[in-house]
Amino acid sequence: MNKFIELPIADEEEEEVKSILVNVSNVGRIFPDPQNSRKCIVELNYHSINDAPVCLEVNLPYDTVRSYFMP
Asked: How far apart are alpha carbons 7 and 4 in whole angstroms?
């Protein structure tokens, strides 16, 4: 069974927040954003076409996002 999580992502070009669905099994590591305590970085378990890791800047605090994955 696939589980999905809805994450708010800031779109810098359009200056708005979009929600995207991410498969929970694709979420790798979660990091606090060192420059903004109200955001965090979510690294996904797959790579982009140029073999770089895919990271999302999420408009939620680190502790909030981490709590979604705690049993």
From this structure: 10
Sheet strand arrangement including 16-23? 16-23, 4-11, 53-58, 40-47, 27-32
Integer-rounded Cα Rg, in Å, for the chain is 12
Is pLDDT above 80 for 11? no
Helix/strand/coil percent split, the chain, to 5 = 15, 50, 35
Residue in this structure with the two tokens 């979604």, named with its chain if needed: 68
The DSSP output letter for 33 is -
The pTM assigned to this predicted structure is 0.82
pLDDT per position as a tens digit, 13-66: 767 889 999 999 889 999 999 999 999 999 998 877 777 888 999 999 999 999
Q: Which residues contact 64 (CB under 8 A, 6 or more apart)?
A: none
